[in-house]
Amino acid sequence: MATTRDRILNAFEALLVGQGSRSATLDAVAEEAGVSKGGLLYHFPSRDDLVVGMLDRLRDMGAKDAEKMRSAPQGAVAYYLETSKHTGSAFDRAMIAAARISQESDARASSALDDLREAWFEVLDEQLDDDELARTVQLLCDALYFNETMGLAEEASMPAVRAILARLGALDVQP
Amino acid sequence: MATTRDRILNAFEALLVGQGSRSATLDAVAEEAGVSKGGLLYHFPSRDDLVVGMLDRLRDMGAKDAEKMRSAPQGAVAYYLETSKHTGSAFDRAMIAAARISQESDARASSALDDLREAWFEVLDEQLDDDELARTVQLLCDALYFNETMGLAEEASMPAVRAILARLGALDVQP
DNA sequence: GTCTATAGATGGATAGAC
DNA sequence: GTCTATCCATCTATAGAC
């Protein structure tokens, strides 16, 4: 069983992702986490502390993911493409939650996401050794990711992207 | 001078884009529009009516934009790529504002954005006559657009996308 | 059409019991 | 560490004057 602290952050993220920041109130988070508002505020003295706690966890997960991508047997491009599919993993949820917060002009959230993208780009560029192509792969995966995040209907996109990346030879790389 | 109604919607959109839905309160919208809260509520009896009014205006602008794209002298792909740059136009603002609302599980906003994308895709597919390529162009432009929307630092992306689209021959099309 | 005043509900946060 | 009770600010919405 996760710690209360983690269950609270999970609840905060889930509400941010599912309903947006407006609905992620202390009351709602407490209820989702199965704790009282007082209990929540013991762990996170203010709503802003929830944001900080969430971004800290995201940075941890991000560092681990970049390492996993670097040594993925199928190559970084294929790994990145696969993990652009929205799996509902804890990491996914934390990224989207951070995106929600960053849209409220929160510099800490924007910078956490920027650093994540930078780390991924470095791995792509290492393996592709083609700056333009690395950026394009990242953009395509961003788009797949964000479209899904926004609930847009784009089932045909993934096969199209795979086909185009094959035309460009981007799927041939090895770690 | 714009009508009061339009100034109110402009203010609502500006707050959604700049600060997020949480900050787009009736008080804040009224102040930004230079009208009292009572005055605002005369035109839009509830906050939800602001959303509906905003989406109506977006649909109008969207229909006009798809037509402009279809007959653009530089071709639909180049037009679409150029207008993916965030210009701060009224249309831009309305799209991003709708994206903010759609993230709160608002089916009306999601559907308005979906319809817009569908209309653009049709034009791209007409001119490219390559389904995969049309989807890819759209995804790349989405990514450029959304990255900018989210305040991510990606100045190098546009030239990279242009270069890759040139490799694919996607920039050669004519209306 | 626009304003002020105010009601009623909800949000963030504190105090203190257990 | 977790809970209940409560305070105060803010938010949506209404009423009614001009």
From TrEMBL, chains A, B:
Which PANTHER family does this entry report, sorted A to Z? HTH-TYPE TRANSCRIPTIONAL REGULATOR BETI, HTH-TYPE TRANSCRIPTIONAL REGULATOR RUTR
Q: What is this protein called?
A: TetR/AcrR family transcriptional regulator
| SUPFAM superfamilies with a match to the protein in the record | Homeodomain-like
Q: Name one Pfam family in it.
A: TetR_N
Q: List the keywords (alphabetical).
A: DNA-binding, Transcription, Transcription regulation
Lineage of producing organism: Bacteria, Bacillati, Actinomycetota, Actinomycetes, Propionibacteriales
Q: Does the keyword Transcription regulation apply?
A: yes
**Which InterPro entries does the UniProt record give?**
Homeodomain-like_sf, HTH-type_TetR-like_transc_reg, HTH_TetR
Q: Give the source species.
A: Solicola gregarius
Transcription regulation as a keyword of this entry, yes or no, is yes
DNA-binding region per Swiss-Prot/TrEMBL record: 25-44
Output the superkingdom of the source species.
Bacteria
Show where the HTH tetR-type domain sits: 2-62
Identify a single GO molecular function assigned to this protein.
transcription cis-regulatory region binding
